[in-house]
Amino acid sequence: MFITGFPELLFTQWQPNNVASFNGFLLLQGIEQEVELRVPHFPHSRGAILYSPNFALSAKLHTAQQHLYQAAEECGTLTTFLKKVQQILSDDDHKDIAQDEGVPDWWLCLLRDLEGIGWHNISSVSTELRRVTVKAVVAEREHLLHVSIQPGYPYTKPSYEASLPVTLNPTNTTLCGSVDAWWQQLGELQQFWDVMAELDGTAAVLDPATPQLHHTHRRILLSNQVSVHLVVSPFSPHSPPQCQMIGSSHLTAPLLTLLTQRYHEWDSERSIVGNLEQLLQVTVVRRGSGRRTAPDHSDSDDSDDEMSDAGCVICFSLHYGTELPDSICEHCHQAMHLTCLYTWLSGLSHSRQSMQFICGDCPCCKKPISCKVPA
Question: Minimum mean pLDDT among 102-116, 125-139, 239-253, 312-326: which range?
């Protein structure tokens, strides 16, 4: 089957309910556009609908849908209908569409904004034009900006979702202005992401389990069974980060003293790992350097060997749900999840529990240890 006058539209298949499907190209506004034509009453044009994978054309088809529906009902043949489609989407007739009271003004404003952004930068547009996703690739990192178009656009500011370490709050109400602000922030944050990528590639990162672009913190492991929780400034990533030592007080106290005394020696030309090793006189555990000492029977999907030294000595895993092994024995310096330690102590016949704490023997050294009762 073919359509007279449109040899580049070829019949492909019968869809459910005897809908004929044609795929190919249609000349619209002087450009060959890829389209799909679905005809529920073939060979009559009644109910015929055009689709396109091209976002710009798809948006224009949505804008002109009332005119296209009327043409499909009145034309009779597919040849006449497709010629009418070409006429409706021509430049002159597109102005008439804009003047049609049935077409929302915000659609036309949004289409202009999308064209201003560039259709090659648009990842997706919802069929009702209420959700737009803009993409950008900078330094081999893919960034997505999810935009929700609010009622009253363009006078009402859209809402945004983006994986950024800072809040995106552009003052411009239009999509073009907002995307420009987002692109500018992406450029300003590249140094921050470079610093974090170097840290992730060098050190054994305990938390977050899967670092994302919006994370400003990392928890890394030192060679003396102490971990450091770092918070890096997005706009000053080479400055000294906030540091919190996690571990036995016998081990963290000397490190905190050293950090306080030598804080002014932080060198912005060195990496975070290099600075920590220089100031604290201790080695940062490298990514991929550790070895597991016991099988992991938890629900965690941890598989990196370097996490073994930081794992809980009770369940032998790093993550227990959202928990990390932050309960440290002051005697043997072994780390445990709060939930694991509480479960262990609860099973001891001689443990003692108050309203908020439970006391008993460490599972490793058998010396006294206590923990809070989990909420």
Answer: 102-116
Q: With a cut of 80, say whether residue 306 has pLDDT above it.
A: no
% of the chain residues with pLDDT over 90: 42
Q: What is the DSSP string of 195-233?
A: HHHHHHHHB-EEESSS--TT--EEEEEBTTS-EEEEE--
Range of the domain at 130: 111-188
Measured between alpha carbons, how far is 291 from 282 in angstroms, rounded to an integer? 19
Q: Are 315 and 321 in contact (CB under 8 A)?
A: no
The CATH number of the domain where 183 resides is what? Answer: 3.10.110.10
Q: How far apart are CA 282 and CA 164, in angstroms?
A: 32
Q: Could you say which of 161, 188, 215 is where a domain stops?
A: 188
- Residue 307, pLDDT score: 53
Out of 107-111, 124-128, 278-282, give the one with best mean pLDDT.
278-282
In a domain, 4, yes or no: no
The band of 94, judged by pLDDT with boundaries at 50, 70 and 90, is very low
Structure tokens at 361: 């023997």
- How many Cβ atoms sit within 10 Å of the Cβ of residue 322? 7
Q: What is the pLDDT of residue 305?
A: 47
DSSP 374: P
E-state strands within the chain: 9-15, 19-28, 31-39, 49-51, 122-125, 131-138, 141-148, 159-162, 205-207, 217-221, 227-231, 242-246, 327-328, 335-336, 352-353, 357-361, 368-372
Contact (Cβ atoms closer than 8 angstroms) between residue 21 and residue 11:
yes
pTM, 2 dp = 0.63
Closest by Cα among 310, 245, 306 to 276: 245
